[in-house]
Design a protein that fits this description.
Elements (H helix, E strand, L loop, with lengths): L1 H20 L3 H11 L4 H25 L5 H21 L8 H23 L12 H18 L3 H12 L4 H27 L6 H22 L4 H22 L7 H28 L1 H4 L1 H21 L1
């Protein structure tokens, strides 16, 4: 019973972070399942089954609060589902020992860029409102879906920073669209695991408690990002990307850092991350008229109106 309660709390906390920052549900939940001895394929299958419910509720919640760009969901979600099915089907025979560190380096660089960019300069607005092309979103979806299935989490860590870095979509819409499209990824990954594993290795009571915790947290998270200023949200996302991928690298065979080195690295990153958020909060308070969620939304509406006028006059 204690283990089930713990799993429920983990599901709640993981979805609260995932729904607010666009990542970490799979990583958090899978890490706990692996820690108690579950094999990698079964852990990922359990988490993805729970995610069918959590992502559905999360997507509906984000839609209710206006956090979803449905064109982005369609362009990235379908390729993501294909990649997730492929990754789930071949996970039992696929080694990610080399791929994981390489991916972590890429994500670490993206996370550092986002952390510095949003903290120092706020939301990049030069491309804000411009459409995200299918030729960018489709390959991104394939890669993110594959990584998500084979690593037990990765849809958010791959998709969120890449779209944020493009500067074409407000952070809350990036997170809402990534969370909503993950519903398709979760269904496809679960189907792939049933093809590759069957159901005998999955503990369905774990799926249920993870699901319950996540469903409770989903609407809270969707409400939160509707009110968190983009600058602060970007600093928060960048920090968690850096921290999670630094952890993967330090524990990989490439580095295999000692526990003391890992501790020093985590503390250093945490201090820098906290300082970045504090600075973002200060800058937001100093220039609230331009940094608030309402100001960003107003700017996007003006751009959309100007575009419509240009189209009509042409």
């Amino acid at each position: 019973m204690r283990a089930l309660i713990l799993l429920g709390l983990v599901g709640f906390a993981a979805q609260l972070v995932d729904g607010s920052l666009g990542m970490a549900y799979g990583v958090t939940s899978t890490t706990l399942l692996l820690a108690i001895g579950t094999n990698a394929a079964a852990a990922s299958a359990t988490v993805h089954l729970a995610e069918i419910g959590t992502t559905l509720v999360s997507g509906l919640s984000h839609w209710r609060f206006g956090n979803v760009d449905w064109k982005v969901v369609a362009k990235i979600g379908v390729p993501g589902a294909i990649g997730a099915f492929a990754g789930a089907t071949f996970l039992s025979s696929l080694s990610t020992e080399v791929a994981a560190p390489v991916m972590s380096i890429i994500l670490l660089v993206l996370g550092a860029y986002i952390l510095v960019r949003f903290t120092a300069l706020g939301l990049p607005r030069g491309n804000l409102g411009k459409p995200l092309r299918k030729r960018f979103l489709a390959p991104l979806g394939l890669l993110a879906g594959f990584v998500d299935s084979t690593g037990g989490g990765g849809w958010g860590p791959v998709g969120t920073p890449a779209i944020l870095a493009s500067g074409r979509l407000a952070p809350r819409k990036v997170i809402g669209s990534i969370d909503t499209s993950e519903f398709l990824v979760a269904i496809a990954a679960s189907a792939g695991f049933f093809v590759g594993l069957g159901s005998e290795n999955i503990t369905f009571s774990w799926v249920v408690v993870l699901l319950i915790g996540g469903v409770i947290a989903a609407p809270i998270a969707a409400w939160l990002i509707r009110h968190i200023p983009p600058r602060i949200l970007g600093s928060s996302v960048g920090g968690i990307i850096v921290l999670t991928n630094a952890r993967t690298l330090l524990r990989s065979d490439w580095i295999d850092a000692s526990s003391s080195v890992q501790t020093v690295a985590y503390v250093t990153i945490a201090v820098i991350w906290a300082a970045a958020i504090a600075y973002s909060v200060r800058e937001y308070r100093r220039d609230k008229a331009n940094e608030s969620v309402e100001a960003i939304e107003s700017g996007l509406r003006r751009k959309a109106g100007d575009t419509e006028e240009e189209t009509a006059s042409a």
